[in-house]
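User: Structure please.
Assistant: Input sequence and predicted structure:
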Amino acid sequence: MSLHDAVKVALLLDGETVVLQHRDKDAPTNPNKLTFFGGSIEPGEDDREAAGRELREETSITFDEDALERIATYARIGGGAMSVFALTIPTDVFEVYEGAGKRTMKLLDVLTSPMVTDGTKEAVRHIVEQRKETNDVSTN
């Protein structure tokens, strides 16, 4: 993995609702925007390990890395790869250790929200496509 490789973790409350991180106003990238939890893959990590580490660093959620569902890996604009994972959680009651908190949103609303980063919208497109294949998300 190169230093430009990164991970995003979609926290799914159900098949149609996600929890997003609200980045704070002083964030070095995408200030005041909504994004999935995640970050860069560190040397020696694979993408699943990085997704688990990032989620543990940024939230109080307890989970087994085997529960992280691989959604997609694709080329990032500007170089490197993005790996997207999903984790189904039973509740949005958890602490966020980084940023300005969290927000829940319908998965399909993420695609049209001006508050959501382009990278997160791209990840959602992959999630929606996968869910369509398994009929897990309503497209109405």
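Residues 118-134 form the longest helix (17 residues).
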